[in-house]
Amino acid sequence: IDGTTVTREIPVAFNPHPIGKPAPNQGKPGPMPADSFRFDYSGLAFRHFRVYDRPGHAVGDTSPLRMRMAFETVVPRQTIRDVILCGLPAGTEVVRKGNVSGVRTEIDFQARIDAAAAAGGGRVTVPPGRHVTSELHLRSNVELHLERGAWLEGSPRPDDYTFVKLPYSEGDWAAVVSCYNVTNVAITGEGTISGNGGAFPQMSVWLGDAGRRRPRGLFFSECKGIRLEDFVFRDAAMWGIVFKCSEDVLVRGLTIDSMVNLNNDGIDVEARNVVIRDCDIDCGDDAVCIKSNNPDFAVENVFVSNVTARSQSNALKLGTASHGTMRNIRFVDCRVEAPRRDFLRRETSKTEPTFCFTRTPRLNHMKGLRPHEMTGISGLAVENVDGGVVEDVSFRNVTVEGCAAPIFVRGGRRLKRKCGIPPSDRCVFRNILFENVTGSGRSAIASSVTGVEGCRVKDVTFRNVHLLCRGAGLELSRKARTEEVPEYAERYPDCTMFGFRILPAFGVYARHVDGLVFDNVTAELQDGTEDVRDRFVLDDVTGCRGLPDVSAVAAENLEFKR
After folding, report:
1. Does 402 or 28 have the greater pLDDT score?
2. Distances from the Cα of 131 to the Cα of 86, 143, 161, 176, 413, angstroms
3. Which phi and psi angles does 160 have, rounded to 5°?
4. Does the model's pTM come out above 0.85?
5. DSSP code at position 104
6. pLDDT tens across 313-348, in order?
7. What SS3 state is found at 499?
8. Which of 347, 292, 364, 350 is nearest to 321 (CA)?
9. Which of helix, strand or coil describes residue 539?
10. C-alpha–C-alpha distance, residues 221 and 245, integer Å
11. Nearest Cα to 466, choosing from 443, 500, 429, 434?
12. In angstroms, rounded to a whole number, what is the distance separating the alpha carbons of residues 491 and 488?
């Protein structure tokens, strides 16, 4: 298409969406045919094209808006075979995937980084335009600065990355930008870093060695003094931004939009002395995830504030990896929302880079979820299932919407011991505070605090917590009142883990807990829903204080077991 204006009518199966916002590309609710979004335009090239945000008005050649629109509105979800289609200035050729040299940047950023480091440190600038690069290794005392309109994109070829094995880690590690054992590094600016995740198989995590060859976005291992500010990160091939056994970290003002591949976490933190603030995150997996894989490294002093988190999994989370110690973790003034769009994964295939996990099976897993709703799993999740130490965790001034369950606390005995991690059964799980939390659930699954014998949850406080709960209906809620909730001590933890059933309470269900405080806690049903379950059910809970009003209506609010 050379210098020609082309108008194409959008099929009615696609939902209209505002210009400048990510395209939902989700079609009609329910299962979709395998070929719904599959194209086969082999050898197609686009030359001299422009992107318009309204009739007669072209978006600037180097603006971030144009870059975003080109990826998300020109074609659905980057599923064209053999073609890379992206926002380039008019007059730039787009070549077929596999011929990476045709679009590789002429600037050798690695050479500039190495030269700056040899001179004692300095700033390396990424100018406006699209730059496709192999893995970059940031050196000590070097700042990578992305100018407005700069687009730094990882190569789509696994061979352009150096995959390494790390202690206490599964799989091989590489990233678009990697840092190993460096100090005083920074990535700043108003540009964009793209992981080019659509170029890697979405379901390859189950395919052995090939599944491990998906690079992370930004990776920092055993580093000290890290500063990330103001730029946009998007479209990771696996996890997005990862800190491993590092310290003194500042993440401020980032926008993260990553929902093109499996395991698209936003920020994964295995570090100490960390501040994450003023960020906007929308991703397919956990948005902010504190974890511990190395039993000899204490993850501590993590402060997260003024973060808007959207996730199809867990928004603000500790775990699942909980082999070592996580302590003094604070979430303050944060907001959890529903994801802006749905990453649909077709569950019948583990090899095709297409969509699956449609809302139809999700409806079965999350009772009460409505077909048109996009939702995460849990808003605030705290998990200790690998025999580690989790203590002194707090969530203050947090609003939770767009999740199946607002709050999920789980102590378990999964004891996943791989990669040389020595066995442990110490399991310290204590001092968890939810204060000034407002939560609205999108499913009939309740919030819960549950431990198991050998990993009981201790000293949990709900203070000024107000839950707006979705009723399960009369038939299902009557059944839930009489069913025993299975222990599932070794099962992977999430709020749907109890046999994909709803819990006996519609507000908070607690079991195997020592020291539970309710201080001004309410749980009310959403308008138009009904439920006969109690608001709160306590099963094998000791040391309760500040229970809800025990009066003539107590039988309608609170149930005790054991």
Report:
1. 402
2. 12, 17, 16, 12, 46
3. -85, 5
4. no
5. B
6. 999 999 999 999 999 999 999 999 998 876 544 333
7. coil
8. 292
9. strand
10. 6
11. 434
12. 5
